[in-house]
Protein backbone atom coordinates (compact mmCIF):
# COMPACT_ATOMS: atom_id res chain seq x y z
CA UNK A 1 0.00 0.00 0.00
CA UNK A 2 1.42 3.37 -1.01
CA UNK A 3 1.75 6.21 1.45
CA UNK A 4 -0.55 9.18 0.96
CA UNK A 5 0.72 12.61 1.93
CA UNK A 6 -1.34 15.68 2.73
CA UNK A 7 -0.46 19.35 2.42
CA UNK A 8 -2.52 22.09 4.10
CA UNK A 9 -2.01 25.74 3.23
CA UNK A 10 -2.71 27.92 6.26
CA UNK A 11 -4.22 31.36 5.87
CA UNK A 12 -1.01 32.84 7.28
CA UNK A 13 0.86 30.99 4.49
CA UNK A 14 2.62 28.58 6.83
CA UNK A 15 2.52 25.02 5.56
CA UNK A 16 1.95 21.65 7.20
CA UNK A 17 3.05 18.34 5.70
CA UNK A 18 1.38 15.20 6.99
CA UNK A 19 2.10 11.50 6.42
CA UNK A 20 -1.17 9.55 6.61
CA UNK A 21 0.70 6.50 7.89
CA UNK A 22 2.26 8.29 10.85
CA UNK A 23 2.23 6.48 14.19
CA UNK A 24 0.56 9.33 16.09
CA UNK A 25 -2.83 8.39 17.54
CA UNK A 26 -5.49 10.33 19.41
CA UNK A 27 -5.86 7.97 22.36
CA UNK A 28 -5.16 9.80 25.61
CA UNK A 29 -3.73 7.98 28.63
CA UNK A 30 -3.94 9.24 32.20
CA UNK A 31 -1.23 8.52 34.82
CA UNK A 32 0.43 5.09 34.93
CA UNK A 33 -2.87 3.22 34.93
CA UNK A 34 -3.17 3.86 31.17
CA UNK A 35 -6.86 4.58 31.51
CA UNK A 36 -8.45 5.01 28.09
CA UNK A 37 -11.04 7.70 27.53
CA UNK A 38 -12.55 9.40 24.51
CA UNK A 39 -11.69 13.00 23.71
CA UNK A 40 -13.85 15.24 21.51
CA UNK A 41 -12.12 18.33 20.15
CA UNK A 42 -14.06 21.21 18.52
CA UNK A 43 -13.34 21.63 14.83
CA UNK A 44 -12.41 25.27 15.42
CA UNK A 45 -9.25 24.06 17.18
CA UNK A 46 -7.99 22.64 13.89
CA UNK A 47 -4.87 24.64 13.10
CA UNK A 48 -5.62 25.10 9.41
CA UNK A 49 -9.30 26.00 9.84
CA UNK A 50 -10.47 29.53 9.17
CA UNK A 51 -12.14 30.58 12.41
CA UNK A 52 -10.68 34.00 12.86
CA UNK A 53 -11.42 37.33 11.29
CA UNK A 54 -14.62 38.86 10.02
CA UNK A 55 -17.19 36.89 8.02
CA UNK A 56 -19.65 38.85 5.89
CA UNK A 57 -23.12 37.47 5.12
CA UNK A 58 -24.82 38.58 1.92
CA UNK A 59 -28.59 38.38 1.37
CA UNK A 60 -31.23 39.91 -0.85
CA UNK A 61 -33.15 41.29 2.15
CA UNK A 62 -32.09 42.51 5.56
CA UNK A 63 -32.37 39.50 7.89
CA UNK A 64 -34.97 41.09 10.19
CA UNK A 65 -37.15 42.25 7.27
CA UNK A 66 -36.93 38.85 5.61
CA UNK A 67 -38.10 37.00 8.74
CA UNK A 68 -40.98 39.41 9.37
CA UNK A 69 -42.04 39.33 5.73
CA UNK A 70 -42.15 35.52 5.68
CA UNK A 71 -44.00 35.50 9.02
CA UNK A 72 -41.96 32.56 10.32
CA UNK A 73 -41.14 33.83 13.82
CA UNK A 74 -42.95 35.97 16.35
CA UNK A 75 -41.94 39.62 16.04
CA UNK A 76 -40.96 39.79 19.71
CA UNK A 77 -38.45 36.97 19.12
CA UNK A 78 -36.60 38.73 16.32
CA UNK A 79 -33.25 40.22 17.28
CA UNK A 80 -31.36 40.16 14.01
CA UNK A 81 -28.76 42.50 12.66
CA UNK A 82 -29.17 43.61 9.09
CA UNK A 83 -27.38 41.57 6.47
CA UNK A 84 -25.71 43.12 3.45
CA UNK A 85 -28.29 43.53 0.71
CA UNK A 86 -27.78 42.57 -2.92
CA UNK A 87 -29.95 41.98 -6.00
CA UNK A 88 -29.99 38.47 -7.47
CA UNK A 89 -31.05 36.41 -10.46
CA UNK A 90 -34.80 35.77 -10.67
CA UNK A 91 -37.00 33.36 -12.69
CA UNK A 92 -40.66 33.04 -11.71
CA UNK A 93 -40.94 29.90 -13.89
CA UNK A 94 -38.77 28.04 -11.38
CA UNK A 95 -40.95 29.02 -8.39
CA UNK A 96 -44.07 27.31 -7.13
CA UNK A 97 -47.16 29.20 -8.34
CA UNK A 98 -48.18 30.27 -4.82
CA UNK A 99 -44.73 31.77 -4.21
CA UNK A 100 -44.67 34.23 -7.11
CA UNK A 101 -46.77 36.77 -5.20
CA UNK A 102 -44.11 36.99 -2.47
CA UNK A 103 -41.36 37.81 -4.93
CA UNK A 104 -40.15 41.39 -4.75
CA UNK A 105 -37.62 41.25 -7.57
CA UNK A 106 -38.18 43.07 -10.84
CA UNK A 107 -36.56 42.51 -14.21
CA UNK A 108 -34.41 45.48 -15.29
CA UNK A 109 -34.10 46.85 -18.80
CA UNK A 110 -31.49 44.52 -20.30
CA UNK A 111 -31.08 46.46 -23.55
CA UNK A 112 -28.70 44.49 -25.77
CA UNK A 113 -28.59 41.35 -23.60
CA UNK A 114 -30.95 38.49 -23.02
CA UNK A 115 -32.21 38.19 -19.44
CA UNK A 116 -29.89 35.23 -18.79
CA UNK A 117 -26.87 37.07 -20.19
CA UNK A 118 -27.69 40.18 -18.17
CA UNK A 119 -28.04 38.19 -14.94
CA UNK A 120 -24.83 36.29 -15.59
CA UNK A 121 -22.77 39.41 -16.30
CA UNK A 122 -24.22 41.07 -13.20
CA UNK A 123 -23.39 38.07 -11.01
CA UNK A 124 -19.78 38.00 -12.20
CA UNK A 125 -19.50 41.72 -11.54
CA UNK A 126 -21.12 41.42 -8.09
CA UNK A 127 -18.65 38.74 -6.99
CA UNK A 128 -15.67 40.74 -8.21
CA UNK A 129 -16.83 44.04 -6.72
CA UNK A 130 -17.84 42.47 -3.39
CA UNK A 131 -14.44 40.85 -2.93
CA UNK A 132 -12.64 44.09 -3.77
CA UNK A 133 -14.91 46.43 -1.79
CA UNK A 134 -14.92 44.30 1.37
CA UNK A 135 -11.23 43.39 1.08
CA UNK A 136 -11.85 39.70 1.79
CA UNK A 137 -9.42 36.89 0.99
CA UNK A 138 -12.03 34.45 -0.25
CA UNK A 139 -15.69 34.32 -1.21
CA UNK A 140 -17.87 31.24 -0.59
CA UNK A 141 -21.40 31.14 -2.03
CA UNK A 142 -24.05 28.93 -0.40
CA UNK A 143 -27.54 28.57 -1.95
CA UNK A 144 -30.35 28.55 0.64
CA UNK A 145 -33.48 29.61 -1.26
CA UNK A 146 -36.79 27.78 -1.70
CA UNK A 147 -36.76 24.62 -3.79
CA UNK A 148 -36.76 25.23 -7.54
CA UNK A 149 -38.40 22.91 -10.03
CA UNK A 150 -36.09 20.44 -11.74
CA UNK A 151 -33.92 21.64 -14.61
CA UNK A 152 -34.84 20.07 -17.95
CA UNK A 153 -31.48 18.68 -19.09
CA UNK A 154 -31.38 18.90 -22.90
CA UNK A 155 -28.23 19.54 -24.94
CA UNK A 156 -28.00 23.14 -26.18
CA UNK A 157 -31.24 24.05 -24.40
CA UNK A 158 -31.23 27.67 -23.23
CA UNK A 159 -33.01 26.97 -19.92
CA UNK A 160 -31.02 28.08 -16.86
CA UNK A 161 -32.34 28.00 -13.33
CA UNK A 162 -31.15 30.83 -11.05
CA UNK A 163 -29.13 28.40 -8.92
CA UNK A 164 -27.37 26.98 -11.99
CA UNK A 165 -26.58 30.49 -13.17
CA UNK A 166 -25.13 31.34 -9.75
CA UNK A 167 -23.00 28.20 -9.71
CA UNK A 168 -21.73 28.88 -13.24
CA UNK A 169 -20.62 32.38 -12.24
CA UNK A 170 -18.88 30.95 -9.17
CA UNK A 171 -17.07 28.27 -11.19
CA UNK A 172 -15.75 30.87 -13.63
CA UNK A 173 -14.62 33.08 -10.72
CA UNK A 174 -13.12 30.07 -8.88
CA UNK A 175 -15.45 30.69 -5.93
CA UNK A 176 -16.67 27.64 -3.94
CA UNK A 177 -20.42 27.09 -4.48
CA UNK A 178 -22.60 24.91 -2.21
CA UNK A 179 -26.19 23.99 -3.09
CA UNK A 180 -28.35 23.78 0.05
CA UNK A 181 -31.58 23.00 -1.86
CA UNK A 182 -32.69 19.72 -3.52
CA UNK A 183 -33.08 20.71 -7.17
CA UNK A 184 -30.59 19.52 -9.83
CA UNK A 185 -28.50 22.70 -9.87
CA UNK A 186 -25.39 20.83 -10.99
CA UNK A 187 -26.32 19.74 -14.51
CA UNK A 188 -23.71 17.52 -16.25
CA UNK A 189 -22.15 20.36 -18.24
CA UNK A 190 -21.63 22.43 -15.10
CA UNK A 191 -19.97 19.54 -13.24
CA UNK A 192 -17.66 18.98 -16.21
CA UNK A 193 -16.73 22.68 -16.29
CA UNK A 194 -16.03 22.72 -12.53
CA UNK A 195 -13.73 19.71 -12.89
CA UNK A 196 -11.85 21.25 -15.81
CA UNK A 197 -11.41 24.56 -13.98
CA UNK A 198 -10.73 22.84 -10.62
CA UNK A 199 -13.37 24.99 -8.92
CA UNK A 200 -15.06 23.57 -5.81
CA UNK A 201 -18.76 22.67 -5.90
CA UNK A 202 -20.78 20.72 -3.31
CA UNK A 203 -24.29 19.73 -2.27
CA UNK A 204 -27.13 18.92 -2.47
CA UNK A 205 -29.81 19.87 0.10
CA UNK A 206 -29.21 20.48 3.81
CA UNK A 207 -29.40 17.32 5.90
CA UNK A 208 -30.93 18.84 9.02
CA UNK A 209 -33.42 16.49 10.70
CA UNK A 210 -35.55 13.64 9.40
CA UNK A 211 -33.03 12.44 6.81
CA UNK A 212 -30.39 11.95 9.49
CA UNK A 213 -32.79 9.84 11.54
CA UNK A 214 -33.79 7.78 8.50
CA UNK A 215 -30.22 7.05 7.37
CA UNK A 216 -29.15 6.04 10.89
CA UNK A 217 -32.16 3.74 11.40
CA UNK A 218 -31.87 1.97 8.03
CA UNK A 219 -28.11 1.51 8.47
CA UNK A 220 -28.77 -0.07 11.90
CA UNK A 221 -31.59 -2.34 10.65
CA UNK A 222 -29.78 -3.60 7.55
CA UNK A 223 -26.60 -4.13 9.57
CA UNK A 224 -28.60 -6.23 12.04
CA UNK A 225 -30.10 -8.27 9.15
CA UNK A 226 -33.55 -6.81 9.76
CA UNK A 227 -35.12 -6.09 6.39
CA UNK A 228 -36.97 -2.77 6.02
CA UNK A 229 -39.78 -3.31 3.52
CA UNK A 230 -41.51 0.06 3.69
CA UNK A 231 -40.50 3.60 4.58
CA UNK A 232 -43.15 6.32 4.71
CA UNK A 233 -42.25 9.89 5.62
CA UNK A 234 -44.96 12.37 6.59
CA UNK A 235 -43.41 15.82 6.49
CA UNK A 236 -45.12 18.66 8.37
CA UNK A 237 -43.25 21.73 7.27
CA UNK A 238 -43.26 25.32 8.45
CA UNK A 239 -41.59 28.59 7.46
CA UNK A 240 -43.51 28.45 4.14
CA UNK A 241 -41.51 25.37 3.11
CA UNK A 242 -44.62 23.19 3.00
CA UNK A 243 -46.48 25.76 0.94
CA UNK A 244 -43.66 25.90 -1.59
CA UNK A 245 -43.36 22.10 -1.84
CA UNK A 246 -47.11 21.59 -2.33
CA UNK A 247 -46.58 22.45 -6.00
CA UNK A 248 -45.89 19.25 -8.03
CA UNK A 249 -42.93 20.69 -9.95
CA UNK A 250 -41.03 21.73 -6.82
CA UNK A 251 -42.09 18.68 -4.78
CA UNK A 252 -40.42 16.42 -7.34
CA UNK A 253 -37.03 17.95 -6.47
CA UNK A 254 -37.51 17.23 -2.77
CA UNK A 255 -38.95 13.75 -3.38
CA UNK A 256 -35.85 12.65 -5.30
CA UNK A 257 -33.54 14.14 -2.68
CA UNK A 258 -35.30 12.35 0.20
CA UNK A 259 -35.99 9.02 -1.52
CA UNK A 260 -32.39 8.11 -2.42
CA UNK A 261 -30.87 8.43 1.05
CA UNK A 262 -30.98 4.68 1.85
CA UNK A 263 -29.95 3.20 -1.52
CA UNK A 264 -26.30 2.44 -0.67
CA UNK A 265 -27.22 0.82 2.66
CA UNK A 266 -29.86 -1.40 1.03
CA UNK A 267 -27.57 -2.52 -1.81
CA UNK A 268 -24.80 -3.39 0.67
CA UNK A 269 -26.72 -6.45 1.96
CA UNK A 270 -27.24 -8.98 -0.83
CA UNK A 271 -28.62 -11.50 1.70
CA UNK A 272 -31.66 -9.34 2.49
CA UNK A 273 -32.24 -7.78 -0.92
CA UNK A 274 -32.16 -9.23 -4.41
CA UNK A 275 -30.43 -7.13 -7.11
CA UNK A 276 -32.65 -4.15 -7.86
CA UNK A 277 -34.90 -4.78 -4.83
CA UNK A 278 -35.43 -1.96 -2.36
CA UNK A 279 -37.97 -0.88 0.28
CA UNK A 280 -41.13 0.90 -0.81
CA UNK A 281 -40.33 4.52 -0.06
CA UNK A 282 -43.03 7.19 0.02
CA UNK A 283 -42.50 10.85 0.88
CA UNK A 284 -45.63 12.83 1.76
CA UNK A 285 -45.78 16.60 2.29
CA UNK A 286 -48.61 17.37 4.74
CA UNK A 287 -48.84 21.10 4.20
CA UNK A 288 -47.42 23.99 6.17
CA UNK A 289 -47.31 24.22 9.97
CA UNK A 290 -49.47 21.15 10.67
CA UNK A 291 -49.25 18.51 13.39
CA UNK A 292 -50.19 15.01 12.26
CA UNK A 293 -50.22 11.65 14.06
CA UNK A 294 -50.96 8.23 12.66
CA UNK A 295 -50.83 4.83 14.38
CA UNK A 296 -49.97 1.87 12.20
CA UNK A 297 -50.76 -1.68 13.38
CA UNK A 298 -51.23 -5.05 11.77
CA UNK A 299 -48.75 -7.55 13.18
CA UNK A 300 -45.59 -6.35 11.42
CA UNK A 301 -42.54 -4.82 13.07
CA UNK A 302 -43.26 -1.10 12.69
CA UNK A 303 -41.22 1.84 13.90
CA UNK A 304 -43.23 5.05 14.30
CA UNK A 305 -41.25 8.16 15.21
CA UNK A 306 -42.39 11.62 16.10
CA UNK A 307 -39.35 13.75 15.39
CA UNK A 308 -40.15 17.45 15.80
CA UNK A 309 -37.51 19.42 13.88
CA UNK A 310 -37.32 23.15 13.22
CA UNK A 311 -35.25 23.49 10.07
CA UNK A 312 -34.54 27.19 10.54
CA UNK A 313 -32.71 26.39 13.78
CA UNK A 314 -31.15 23.10 12.65
CA UNK A 315 -29.86 24.52 9.36
CA UNK A 316 -28.06 27.52 10.87
CA UNK A 317 -24.98 25.63 12.17
CA UNK A 318 -24.99 23.43 9.06
CA UNK A 319 -24.73 26.53 6.87
CA UNK A 320 -21.73 27.77 8.82
CA UNK A 321 -20.02 24.35 8.82
CA UNK A 322 -20.53 23.95 5.06
CA UNK A 323 -18.93 27.31 4.34
CA UNK A 324 -15.95 26.62 6.64
CA UNK A 325 -15.38 23.11 5.26
CA UNK A 326 -15.65 24.29 1.66
CA UNK A 327 -13.10 27.03 2.29
CA UNK A 328 -10.76 24.60 4.05
CA UNK A 329 -11.05 22.13 1.15
CA UNK A 330 -9.67 24.72 -1.25
CA UNK A 331 -6.44 24.79 0.80
CA UNK A 332 -5.87 21.04 1.11
CA UNK A 333 -3.50 19.35 -1.34
CA UNK A 334 -2.34 15.74 -1.44
CA UNK A 335 -0.10 13.35 -3.33
CA UNK A 336 0.42 9.59 -3.44
CA UNK A 337 3.89 8.13 -2.96
CA UNK A 338 5.64 8.32 -6.31
CA UNK A 339 3.93 11.52 -7.42
CA UNK A 340 6.23 14.52 -7.70
CA UNK A 341 3.81 17.34 -6.99
CA UNK A 342 0.94 18.00 -4.61
CA UNK A 343 -2.46 18.51 -6.18
CA UNK A 344 -5.82 19.66 -4.86
CA UNK A 345 -8.55 17.19 -4.02
CA UNK A 346 -11.35 16.63 -6.53
CA UNK A 347 -13.39 19.84 -7.07
CA UNK A 348 -16.64 17.93 -6.47
CA UNK A 349 -16.39 18.16 -2.68
CA UNK A 350 -17.51 14.84 -1.18
CA UNK A 351 -16.17 16.09 2.17
CA UNK A 352 -19.49 17.97 2.49
CA UNK A 353 -21.64 14.83 2.23
CA UNK A 354 -22.10 14.49 6.01
CA UNK A 355 -24.14 17.71 5.93
CA UNK A 356 -26.19 17.15 2.76
CA UNK A 357 -29.18 14.92 1.88
CA UNK A 358 -28.16 13.99 -1.66
CA UNK A 359 -24.33 14.11 -1.75
CA UNK A 360 -22.83 15.33 -5.01
CA UNK A 361 -19.98 12.99 -6.02
CA UNK A 362 -17.57 12.84 -8.98
CA UNK A 363 -18.74 10.77 -11.97
CA UNK A 364 -18.31 7.06 -11.31
CA UNK A 365 -17.94 7.51 -7.54
CA UNK A 366 -20.25 5.48 -5.26
CA UNK A 367 -22.65 7.56 -3.19
CA UNK A 368 -22.42 6.98 0.58
CA UNK A 369 -25.43 8.04 2.68
CA UNK A 370 -24.75 6.04 5.86
CA UNK A 371 -24.28 8.76 8.47
CA UNK A 372 -21.60 6.97 10.52
CA UNK A 373 -19.44 6.39 7.44
CA UNK A 374 -19.83 10.00 6.33
CA UNK A 375 -18.80 11.28 9.76
CA UNK A 376 -15.82 8.90 9.94
CA UNK A 377 -14.63 10.17 6.56
CA UNK A 378 -14.88 13.79 7.67
CA UNK A 379 -13.20 13.18 11.03
CA UNK A 380 -10.30 11.27 9.46
CA UNK A 381 -9.65 14.02 6.93
CA UNK A 382 -9.58 16.61 9.72
CA UNK A 383 -7.28 14.34 11.77
CA UNK A 384 -4.91 14.12 8.82
CA UNK A 385 -4.85 17.92 8.59
CA UNK A 386 -3.26 18.09 12.05
CA UNK A 387 -0.91 15.14 11.61
CA UNK A 388 -2.94 12.32 13.15
CA UNK A 389 -3.44 8.88 11.65
CA UNK A 390 -6.96 7.89 10.55
CA UNK A 391 -9.10 6.30 13.25
CA UNK A 392 -10.21 2.70 12.74
CA UNK A 393 -11.60 1.84 16.20
CA UNK A 394 -9.65 -1.45 16.38
CA UNK A 395 -7.85 -0.38 19.62
CA UNK A 396 -5.38 -3.23 19.11
CA UNK A 397 -3.43 -2.37 22.26
CA UNK A 398 -6.37 -3.74 24.29
CA UNK A 399 -6.77 -6.95 22.29
TrEMBL record:
Enzymatic reactions: D-glucose 6-phosphate = 1D-myo-inositol 3-phosphate
GO biological process, one term: inositol biosynthetic process
Entry-linked SUPFAM superfamilies: Glyceraldehyde-3-phosphate dehydrogenase-like, C-terminal domain, NAD(P)-binding Rossmann-fold domains
Span of domain Myo-inositol-1-phosphate synthase GAPDH-like: 209-312
A Pfam short name: Inos-1-P_synth
Gene3D superfamilies referenced in this protein's UniProt entry, alphabetically: Dihydrodipicolinate Reductase, domain 2, NAD(P)-binding Rossmann-like Domain
Cofactors: NAD(+)
Lineage: superkingdom: Eukaryota
GO cellular component, one term: cytoplasm
GO molecular function, one term: inositol-3-phosphate synthase activity
Listed EC numbers: 5.5.1.4
Subcellular location: Cytoplasm
Pathway, per record: Polyol metabolism; myo-inositol biosynthesis; myo-inositol from D-glucose 6-phosphate: step 1/2
Alphabetized InterPro entries for the sequence: Myo-inos-1-P_Synthase, Myo-inos-1-P_Synthase_GAPDH, NAD(P)-bd_dom_sf
Keywords: Cytoplasm, Inositol biosynthesis, Isomerase, Lipid biosynthesis, Lipid metabolism, NAD, Phospholipid biosynthesis, Phospholipid metabolism
Family note: Belongs to the myo-inositol 1-phosphate synthase family.
Protein name, as recorded: inositol-3-phosphate synthase
Naturally occurring in which organism (per UniProt): Daucus carota subsp. sativus (Carrot)
Amino acid sequence: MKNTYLFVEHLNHNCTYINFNSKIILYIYRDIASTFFLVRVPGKHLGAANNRGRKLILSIFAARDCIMRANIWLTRMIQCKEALVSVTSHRTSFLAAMRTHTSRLSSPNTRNYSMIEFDFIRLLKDIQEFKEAKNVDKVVVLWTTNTERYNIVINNEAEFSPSTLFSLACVLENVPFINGSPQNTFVPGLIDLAIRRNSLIGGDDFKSGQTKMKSVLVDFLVGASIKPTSIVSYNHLGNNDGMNLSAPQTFRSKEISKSNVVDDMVSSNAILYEPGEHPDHVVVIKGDGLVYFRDIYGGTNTIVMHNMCEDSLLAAPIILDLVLLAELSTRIQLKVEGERKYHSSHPVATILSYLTKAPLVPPGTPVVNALAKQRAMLENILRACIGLAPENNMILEYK
